[in-house]
């Protein structure tokens, strides 16, 4: 093959191939030289008085693969001399850094592949030492995180009708938590702050004045009092909406509590049947398969109390799905609460107390139908990142890695 075609495949305009040194089963070695004869002086920036004064040999540089083979370039270290400044210097290449053994294009490919993957997998794919991939990845993460965060914040500030999502996830279940701030409309994660207490949230607000510059129309969160108090202080005009997923969890919890109380009073065979199939009580009826519906009917026939609580749970799902506006939703919510009060079980009463306390935030869902569903999916991605990186101790790198993990698919390169 003519070297001119290989030059086009290299995508390095400043050099050209002068010799194909060798080609093996998995490697290609090429000798290259600069297209230009001289280079401008770094001191006076003049190229007219620069002359060549030999070479210091060459170095081997890894480049992007060609023909499915690892490609190595023999890059000459050409000595130059500026007659005007009387300064000697070495040829500076734009496609590879000084004393580097990998081209910028190769490093970009390795780091891009390492995002969302493990270092070991990326090293295997590129046939490169894992320590080298780890070094490239660690060097690229802060820069990539800063670039993506700048885009995300700019997009949030320019957004009309901004919708924020606030939710926490566990670093160590029951001990340490982080709180994420998400742009639900833009599909990005804006920031990550340590802790979830009101004091932690206020400290973040003080240290990051850019957060106050946002103008959200809606903020979606769970029923944690610290979140609602913090948001009401920062954005008093925003609509605070209780996340549907978390609110529905209180109803499911009440249903399962009733199931446990009923289960203890049943005969052994019925008790075993109910315990083995208790998960069928949670999903919505129309989402179940025919076989699952038959088993669920069998479970509900075991206890009238369990059947009435399950119908109460189904009515709550229907309230979310079928209420066309706020006025009708308010009226139907009152009817649903009355249905639960007629049941009279302590678990249902406790759930209704929570619903009454947060009635306005729950009904606000029908003012602007947003949930934290995408945030929950993002939490799964964060957990996968934590498992891959073994809970790295460097907080800055940990935070930057999570922001890249959550934003790299959404924002442009």
Automatic annotation (TrEMBL):
NCBIfam families referenced in this protein's UniProt entry, alphabetically: transpos_ISL3 (NF033550)
Domain Transposase IS204/IS1001/IS1096/IS1165 DDE: 164-400
Segments forming domain Transposase IS204/IS1001/IS1096/IS1165 zinc-finger: 39-82
Protein name (Swiss-Prot/TrEMBL): Transposase
Organism in which the protein naturally occurs: Aureibacillus halotolerans
UniProt cross-references to InterPro entries, sorted A to Z: Transpos_ISL3, Transposase_DDE, Transposase_Znf
